[in-house]
Amino acid sequence: MHQIIQHFTDDDLYKFTMCCAVIMNYPRTQVKYRFNDRSNMVYPPGFADELRRQIKMLENVIITGEEIAFMRRRCSFIPAWFCSYLKGFRYDSRWVRVSQDEAGHLDIEFEGCWSNTILLEVKVLAIVSELYYIMTGQDRLLDYDAYYDKSRDKARRLIEAVCTFSDFGTRRRASFRAQETAVRAMKECQDAMTGPGRFMGTSNVYLAMKYDLVPIGTMAHELICAIAGMYGPQMANYLAMKVWANTYRGALGTFLYDTYGWRIFSLNFSEDYANMFKGLRVDSGDNFGQLDLIAEKYRSLGIDPRTKQIVFSNGLDVDRAIAIQRYAQAKCIPSFGIGTHFTNDFAGVRPMNIVIKLVAVKITEAWPFYCDTCKLSEEPGKYSGNPATVRRFLETLHLEPGSFR
């Protein structure tokens, strides 16, 4: 079978930006990650063996001079020393454990230094997704010519509806070719149109380089989850904002707030950070209700929410994005990060619902034990972590219990 990940920057920008922040602030921190298939899929016999082989092949994937030059040119917020770090970075398959039970269910765990293992998540998820379709024969259903037309039509509709949008679909794409087809179609649609909306770019750094686009992304929940594991969830958002501001000095100013829900974030969101960060990202809950809470918070701090960018990324498709745009355009500066709907929307193919989440952390390798952590968000279906940890965090934050995932 061909090697699925062939380029070092075939990855989402936020993994690199967070890796840089981790090295600067938590260079000795150790972590554990765990795979969660929310649909409890049964994988074909031998899947774990082939997945291990694909992960082993990552050891031969190194960053090229062209990729470094692109990141230096388009990602000015990334310091030169981090690019030097990436030149020397090598994956190690020993950081990963993969198994498959008799029923066919898959288990994946990462463990190691945070600055190393942080660069595994997106690549391994992309491998699992593409590999599943190959080993089940569903890859034969992927009509790329039709997909180009479908993707271009999505871009046309969004541009005509005044939407500013980006591709966020690396993790659960049907294949690398599927994501590339979608990005190429949307780029060519953007180039051919003068409409009020705009295709801004892609989270995938390699495809941004190939198609001369802006790589899009800032951070993910794992930064707040790790801080919560080390220091507690009550002030994790505040500490994460402080770390991010100290690392990037105002660049990459969109904060992902929903790791432990709106209520505790709102308590941490003081006027200085509300002014400093250019906006927030909505990744769970009711998009309309969340926007109303955000706008009310900004107004309470004397800030006009219409000056702030709100990025919506919660399970969007074209119709949902257009509906949010109509509602939000008078309340904020809306933009959209659309994932699976862009990169895994083939007829007859069911997109996977898989994630890899950070579940335990210790401040340095000298500690004899890990501290468990979890993600709660605004939707119980998006909770991650073991049930006991979820309950403990809910109680600590005085939140009502929901279902555990």
Can you characterise this structure?
- This protein has 405 residues and is α/β, with parallel strands linked by helices.
- The protein is built from 17 helices and 12 strands.
- The protein has helices at residues 13-25, 47-57, 65-74, 80-88, 114-117, 121-135, 144-160, 176-192, 205-210, 221-231, 236-248, 262-268, 271-276, 287-300, 318-328, 340-343, 387-396, and strands at residues 30-37, 96-100, 106-113, 164-167, 198-202, 214-215, 254-256, 279-282, 309-312, 333-338, 354-362, 371-372.
- Strands 6-5-4-10-9-8-7 form a 7-stranded parallel beta sheet. The protein has a 5-stranded antiparallel beta sheet with strand order 2-3-1-11-12.
- The longest helix is centred in the middle third of the chain and has 17 residues, at 144-160.
- The model has no long low-confidence stretch (mean pLDDT 97).
Helix content: 40-55%
User: What is the overall pLDDT average?
Assistant: 97
Distance between the termini: 33 Å
Query: pLDDT below 50 for ≥5 consecutive residues: which ranges?
Result: none
The helix count comes to 17
